[in-house]
Amino acid sequence: MTPEQAVTVRAVVFDLGGVLTTDPFAGMVAYAEDLGIPSSSIADAVRTGPQFQDVETGRSTMRDFLKWLCVDIETRYGVRVDIRRLAAALAAGQQVRPEMLVLVRDLRAAGARIGLLTNNAREAKSWWESGVLPLEEFDVVLDSSDLGVRKPDPEAFRITLDRLGLEPAEVAFVDDLAVNVDGARAVGLHGLVFEDPAQCRAELTALLDRSAPVTTTGNQ
Question: Could you give all domains of the chain from N- to C-terminal order, each with its CATH number?
Answer without folding.
Answer: 11-23+94-210 (3.40.50.1000), 26-91 (1.10.150)
